[in-house]
Design goal:
The complex is a heterotrimer. By secondary structure, chain A is an all-alpha fold. Helix content of chain A is about 75%, strand content about 5%. Chain C has a domain of about 200 residues. Classes of the chains: A mainly alpha, B alpha/beta, C mainly alpha.
């Protein structure tokens, strides 16, 4: 896999030379953002062994923080310098992640899905009903990406590079975290919690830290998402986006951080173009069928399938 | 293996076909239509699309001699999805004009988006939030129709003076569109001397209203119900089953054709319900009959009469076509001439009035007080009790005074 | 005070509906560990089939039967053709059922349109009766819901506690490998269980389509309420589902009556609180 990093990097950097603005922002930018958020889920699933439905909630915490502390058209919140806003957003998302970890630390398997789903739904309804902080149903709009040292991140090319850089940082952070002692302990908890405990490592601290770290990653996606959409509302943290993130992670493949991004691109392409491929009334059937086929045909996600194809080709040529 | 290869090949073809820039002939005019085609509002969204298509079908899909092509995108009632749909239409499909969206918060989202796309003209579909045009408007966002408050014109006065109701309780969904409708009702009703002692804001999609039903004070004279779709059905059924007997005044979508054409016994509960609406399914006028006939002919599997959504998307499409004719299809210079034509446009609406815009690019409309009745064939429709012409967005108030009342919310307005 | 009791009563009747809707889900979840995200669309499908039958025959009970059978057939087909192959792979099954629910919801939108459907009740259940003591009018059909819930609860309990299938199901909950080792064809049992669970969903669809109404989106609502009820109560336990339904029904009604703004949040806060302290639900058995 490491041999591929350089070519991938070059392709990613060169894309703005050929892609239209639409592709840069709506397909690639959106894919990178969704990929980062999905990465926070694949991280939890691959290394802690739990499936969380609350990653969109964590991204939402960061997103709402950005909206609240930026200029917006809702007339709610305090405007702060973008740097402070961004740091606050990441801090809140990390805290929220830790809090979810604290609540869900006893839950594994299907129960971790359920408790995080409940948290995510509670947050969703709260944002929809609360007008003093979250501006309810309508939410915030009119938020723009900042301009830093003369670079306006509202510009498609600049924004694409921002997303790309963030994605690489996110992947790098995950790789570093996994290799760190804490990361090793996380994988230990996944495989044999009792043994980790008998080594004198408190498992709940490990679990809470892993959730908090996933909150940080999801928060990065959440900040970018608000700058990209220029808005956030209760809909952004609802059940639909929650399931989308799960779908993205699974179709991409949970074993490797890159899977989240491949899943995201596949998802965004289907979501954007299904309506053009078939009559406008039945595009959801297409989306469902594609999902079904991917889930059935490739247990390891698209990335897993690509790998096994590669190996088979290798076997044939040998 | 074979399967995998096939899949990869298919994916490649797919990718190639979408990467290729669509052929774009300068002589074509492309119109993107955004409506809700999935989830709980799908029936409404489909009817919106029918309305927009009808306008273009009637014009032979031509304007000023140029071909007009329609591209449809679906949103899911969320502002995010409306924005994504619009961006795709603009940047990928290269549309010149966008017609839509359907619901209130989506409208505000597209108004904000329109400020960043000077080369595209947005014509609102049926979204009826007050703020989409009234506060913070955008000069390329037009609404050839009213907002939710305008649609209630005359109802408050009618309820107080003619029906003699002094105290009315309100049951409405807890979001921006019903807030606006309640404003429209209360500004007249309270102004005439009526009182609204209690407002029940219920979460959209609530199934069970039974505890609301029993919380309604005994001493009110009537209920103002601004609920849509299944929510309206569930509330009315439960209110009736619990022995509730207060007369009901309907919000606009509570008596819309999309509810009257639903299936089930609840509909007879609505018979005789007065309501405010700009769309009267059984309007007795030449223009409406022509419109309804044309609708039924083009869409035999549509509703039994055009809904408010078909009606408003139709007017949006028609406004675009008429203005295009006037400027001979000239969209140069960021649609300068086209927008000037839209601003000054006047045309006869299906309900026989004259549609024109105010300085905020919001329609000055005719609204109606209607009642639900059972047609001879056993289906249900609306007929006119009273016509209120020339309803402006400020509901006849001085603009500054109206603005000073502040944006609508759960607590604004209030007259307990 | 009177209002307080009425709300309590509303909570009970709503709990009855939630229980009816959730017991198919808990049955499937309990034995097969399948989180059937297609539960909601099966319920909606049952409601549509039931509507057609009631329109055709005028018989409400036939409608319930038809809705149940319709959903059971679809459920059996799903388990036989797709889901059965991935038994034990929980996440994959969850995703497959999500995909199926997206497809089925869209196909039903095609078939029945997006308008709201309400199924006609038999004459004796229309309207309301006066409640003694509280002296208010109350909907007959809601009272009937409680009876139906009790009947379904007792039947399910009998099925699980007294029949051979029930013994096998209970054995399956505790130790599936052993059951297979004993030579039981779990594949066939799973199809039967899935069909029964789907049938319950379909019948619940007809019942809620008559007591309230159904429309696109109803599938999602009942899926979510069933998830919450079953998770709070404890999976696979009929008593747990009843308890969960009671808790959620009451919370929802009291929320609506006394704190309408944040009432909807309560349900999920309860769920979070229960799961934080008892991850397996109130009456659920701890995983070994």
């Amino acid at each position: 896999m490491s041999r591929l990093i350089l070519p991938i990097l070059i392709i990613c950097l060169a894309v703005p030379l050929i892609a239209s603005e639409f592709w840069l922002t709506q397909i690639l930018g959106r894919s990178l953002i969704l990929g980062i958020t999905a990465l926070s889920l694949t991280f939890l699933t691959a290394y802690l062994g739990v499936v969380s439905f609350a990653q969109i909630t964590l991204a939402g915490v960061a997103g709402y923080t950005v909206a609240y502390f930026s200029a917006n058209t809702a007339g709610i919140g305090i405007e702060l310098p973008w740097m402070i806003t961004m740091l606050l957003a990441l801090a809140f998302a990390t805290l929220a992640g830790g809090l979810i970890g604290l609540i869900a630390k006893q839950s594994v398997g299907i129960y971790s899905i359920m408790i995080t789903l409940a948290i995510s739904m509670a947050f969703f309804y709260f944002t929809r009903q609360n007008y003093s902080i979250f501006n309810g149903w309508t939410g915030f709009s009119g938020i723009t990406a900042p301009a830093v040292f003369g670079v306006d991140f509202g510009d498609p090319v600049a924004f694409y590079y921002l997303c790309l850089a963030t994605a690489f940082i996110a992947v790098g952070l995950v790789i570093c975290f996994v290799a760190s002692p804490l990361g090793l302990a996380t994988q230990g908890v996944r495989d044999a919690a009792r043994r980790v405990r008998s080594l004198g490592i408190p498992t709940s601290t490990v679990i809470v830290s892993a959730y908090a770290f996933s909150g940080f990653i999801a928060g990065m996606g959440g900040v970018l998402n608000v700058w990209h959409q220029e808005r956030i509302s209760s809909f952004s943290v609802g059940l639909g986006p929650t399931i989308d993130i799960l779908i993205i992670s699974v179709i991409g493949g949970m074993r490797h951080p890159l899977g989240a991004f491949i899943g995201a691109i596949a998802y965004v392409l289907i979501d954007t173009y299904a309506i053009d491929l078939i009559s406008r009334d039945r595009f959801n059937t297409v989306i469902g069928l594609v999902l079904l086929v991917i889930v059935i045909a490739s247990p390891e996600g698209i990335l897993g399938t690509l790998k096994s194809v590669k190996e088979r080709i290798k076997n044939v040529t040998n | 293996m074979v399967l995998n290869l096939k899949k990869i090949a298919a994916a490649g073809v797919l990718a190639a076909s979408v990467l290729a820039t669509p052929a774009y002939a300068a002589d074509n005019i492309k119109v993107g239509v955004i409506s809700i085609l999935e989830g709980a509002f799908a029936a409404l969204g489909q009817d919106g699309i029918r309305g927009a298509e009808l306008a273009f079908i009637e014009a032979g899909n031509k304007a000023a001699g140029k071909d007009v092509e329609i591209v449809v995108m679906s949103s899911d009632a969320s502002p995010d999805s409306a924005v994504n749909a619009a961006r795709k239409l603009i940047e990928q499909d290269k549309v010149d004009i966008i017609v839509g969206p359907l619901s209130g918060s989506e409208g505000i989202a597209l108004r904000d988006l329109s400020k960043g796309y000077k080369g595209v003209t947005f014509i609102n579909g049926s979204s009826a939030a007050q703020d989409a045009t009234f506060r913070d408007g955008s000069d390329n966002f037009f609404r050839f129709g009213g907002d939710g408050a305008q649609w209630m014109a005359g109802v408050g006065t009618y309820a107080y003076k003619e029906l003699g109701y002094k105290k009315v309780a309100i049951v409405a969904e807890d979001y921006s569109f019903p807030y606006t409708q309640v404003l429209g009702f209360m500004s007249e009703f309270c102004g005439a001397g009526g009182r609204v002692p209690e407002k029940f804001w219920t979460p959209i999609g609530a199934k069970d209203y039974s505890s609301i039903v029993y919380a309604i004070p005994d001493d009110v004279d009537a209920l103002f119900v601004a609920l849509g779709g299944a929510d309206a059905v569930n509330f009315l059924t439960q209110y009736n089953q619990a022995g509730g007997s207060k007369p009901i005044i309907g919000g606009t979508i509570t008596i819309d054709q999309s509810i009257l054409d639903s299936k089930g016994p609840f509909r007879k509960l609505l018979v005789g319900t007065p309501a405010g609406t700009p769309t009267v399914s059984d309007f007795d006028g030449e223009e409406w009959k022509a419109f309804a006939t044309s609708y039924t002919k083009a869409f035999p599997d549509g509703l039994s009469a055009p809904s408010i959504f078909a009606h408003h998307y139709y007017m949006a499409g028609k406004a675009a076509l008429l203005a295009l004719e006037q400027v001979k299809g000239d969209l140069s210079n960021d649609h300068k001439a086209f927008r000037a034509a839209l601003t000054k446009l006047e045309f006869v609406t299906p309900t026989g009035g004259t549609m024109r815009l105010d300085e905020n690019r919001n329609g000055i409309i005719d609204s109606f007080i209607t009642e639900v009745f059972e047609r001879e064939d056993g289906t249900y429709g609306n007929r006119v009790l009273k016509v209120v012409r020339n309803v402006s967005q400020t509901l006849g108030y001085d603009a500054d005074k109206f603005r000073a009342m502040g944006p609508v919310s759960r607590d604004n307005p209030s007259c307990p | 005070m009177k209002f307080f009791f009425i709300v309590f009563f509303n909570g009970l009747t709503l709990a009855a509906l939630y229980f009816i809707a959730a017991c198919g889900f808990t049955l499937i979840f309990g034995l097969m560990r399948t989180v059937n995200m297609a539960h909601g669309v099966l319920l909606l499908f049952g409601a549509y089939v039931g509507y057609e039958f009631v329109e055709l025959t005028g018989q409400w009970s036939l409608g319930i039967l038809a809705g149940g059978i319709g959903a059971a057939v679809v459920g059996a087909i799903l388990q036989t053709t797709i889901l059965g192959r991935y038994q034990g792979d929980e996440l994959r099954q969850t995703l497959i059922t999500i995909a199926i629910s997206i497809i089925m919801a869209d196909l039903m939108l095609w078939g029945w349109g997006g308008l709201t459907y309400q199924i006609a009740l038999p004459e004796m259940l229309q309207g309301g009766v006066r409640l003694p003591l509280l002296n208010v009018g109350y909907s007959s059909v809601r009272l009937t819901l409680m009876i139906i819930a009790v009947v379904i609860g007792v039947l399910l309990w009998l099925l699980i506690a007294k029949t051979k299938l029930g013994i096998i199901i209970r054995a399956g909950v505790d130790d599936r490998t052993m059951l297979e080792a004993l030579g039981f064809d779990t594949k066939k049992i799973f199809i039967i269980v899935f069909a029964i669970g789907s049938m319950l969903a379909g019948m619940a669809g007809v019942i809620s389509g008559s007591a309230l109404s159904v429309a696109p989106g109803t599938d999602f609502q009942f899926l979510l309420s069933s998830l919450v009820v079953v998770i709070v109560g404890g999976m696979g336990s009929v008593g747990g589902a009843a308890l969960g339904a009671l808790l959620i029904g009451l919370a929802e009604q009291y929320g609506l009556a006394y704190a309408p703004t944040y009432g909807v949040v309560f349900t999920f806060v309860i769920m979070v609180a229960v799961l934080a302290f008892r991850p397996q639900g109130i009456l659920g058995k701890a995983e070994k």
